[in-house]
Amino acid sequence: MSGPFEVRLLSLVVPCYNESQSIGNFFDCVIPVLESIDALRFEIVLVNDGSSDDTLDKLITFSHRDARVRVVDLTRNFGKEAALTAGLDEALGDAVIPIDADLQDPPSLIPELVMRWREGAEVVLAQRSSRACDSWLKRVTADAYYRIHNKLSDQKLPVNVGDFRLMDRVVINALKQMPERRRFMKGLFAWVGFNTVIVPYEREPRIAGESKFSGWRLWNLALEGITSFSTLPLRSWTYLGSAIALLAFLYGTFIVLRTMVFGVDVPGYASVLSLLLFFGGVQLIGLGVVGEYIGRIYDEAKGRPIYLVKRRYQETRPQGGVSGGRKVVRLASAKRG
Ligand code: UDP
Ligand code: MG
User: How are strands ordered across the β-sheet holding 196-201?
Assistant: First the structure.
């Protein structure tokens, strides 16, 4: 596809939410790595996901210094999945790599991802070889989650693979065709398929600041993943309901026969009450599951945009510096003067 003289463009997409403490280190690490790869131009798309600290100011400063860096400022915090979607929409590269701002996804792996891409892979997954830097609880729950998700849904998630990966332009274009509002990116990435290879790496602890994913946010992400990619929880009520109805029928028959043989037997308050409570609980769970899905339908039906861009920042003069010209992005401006 690419001739020997065609220099292709790589886009790095970085969602940033209150990353003031890590972003400087991020640039120090990532720029030399990208510059070391030959016959490759690059751009860095920074998405400011409604940070409440001075992240945006820092990002803008970087974009003024370096014409290959641009900033997309969202109107508020839309969450990582939406910020990532914004970045993928804005990226112009022949290949795109989403990467976290906290250096947990090692930039040193990028040359290898690019190498595999040049060898013909359309998706190059970076897979953590261990979760040693995560807490015991996170390891166990993540493990259980992957197992449950992959049992329930048709699209298997590769284990221990995050958003850090390289995707060819054809994959990005496929992703852009997916209209859903509620976006579970890992799942969408898996859904599109394409020719995929895996590169293992060791995940480091965060360099600065703290994780934005609390237990509750992770739980919601997990629910999002399952309800996005499986309707089994919804359909399972048919089977559970049938099984319970069958048991009830058998029990009913048993009571009728017993009454016919032994006569009328009034006591039974305890068994009636416990059955009543049990079925009440089962019905409420069923309603809850149906509610999850109706909520999703409601969200999709509203058809709101996934994110809103407040403003884009980019240095239009290649040398950077004095006036700090800002402009909506053009491909040529990603070139380094
Ligand atoms: N992030 C974001 N919006 C959010 C939460 C997180 O853009 O609402 C970004 C964050 O700045 C970082 C990446 O997503 O670049 C991963 O976040 P974090 O490191 O907190 O997650 P963890 O590594 O703990 O899973
Ligand atoms: Mg992190």
Answer: 196-201, 123-128, 161-168, 95-98, 8-16, 40-48, 69-74, 309-314
